[in-house]
Amino acid sequence: MKTVNFLFSLYAVSMMLAACSNPSKHTSSHPEGIVLNLELTGLPDSTEMQIHVGATGQPEEAIQTAYLINGKAQFTFDVEGPRLYNISARHTNGLMNVVMDKGHVATLKAEASYEEQAQGSVPYIRYTNQKVEGTSLQEEYLRRRVNRDALNERYEAYHKITDREEMLKAEKAFFATVDSTFKAAFRASADSWWGPMLILHSYSYINEHNEADYNLLSESAKESFYGKQLHDKIWPPTMVGKQMPDFRFINYANGKAMSLKECLAGKKYLLLDFWASWCKPCRKEIPNILKLYKKYHTEGFEVVSISADTSEAAWKKALDEEKLPWYNDRDGQQGICTLYKVQYYPTIYLIDADGKVVAKDIRGEELAAKLADLFN
Q: Yes or no: is domain 2-144 CATH 2.60.40?
């Protein structure tokens, strides 16, 4: 629901304080792995389904893909412990969740339908009447998670209030309820991996303001897979001085395949900018980058912009408006964003000629001062 997405994005801001499968090295059989059978109606045969680890706070590469045949497909792969998984059709938005652990053999049934989208937008599939059999963890997940439908009803109710003072009062009470509801859910699961998983799964964005949530957790919860993921979102390990991975992309201006290494050739420094057309801070920073690009490009300064837009039309419209003179590509499937562990936009890396990070998330006057120091 759009309201759900808006609600929990808004809450995150307020807290600033929301068959036929590809071979894989993970492929396994019961009991050390999991087996998940899909039974879907509403999607054509040969639809490519994919499964990802969910609730990590960042895009994840697909563990495995499988093609629907007569509405059925199967995933089977090794696991190290309990995980929440996201299942979706490739190149679409909309997903299903299932929680499984090693040894589980489960079936996920659902009805799928495409929703009408604006031309050029990524197709959206709504999955309804979802039923999971074969994993008791799914039932526990449904019990432990926050009832978003109930919060949505309260959200919509207070927005119908016409008196401004009453609405502001109701809004304050609503966010107090959201806060207390989430905190109660976290405390109830604080002694196990459920706690950090629910925290990661509940917020649109994790940063240092979530330290209080982390401190609710038991030591064993902190040492779990999701506990470590949460720790690194709150206190990200420094990237300065580290070698960044190379990647290939298609430059929008000429359709030429490029690599980050090729872009660095003959340059002194490169700014790698992860952005999106809908991101206001990203668009606000572009004039500053453009000014610095014009000033230092001939001295060895390069820029590569990677957009996270799922809509190609929206991305092209933004490129036309901004007229960016440097390398550009769109990472609609989040492959490059996943490689660089991007969890917010803009994410900016300043990289030297050897491919090592000089600075991260440096913008505005700070970026101008840094480049002035490096080039003078």
A: yes
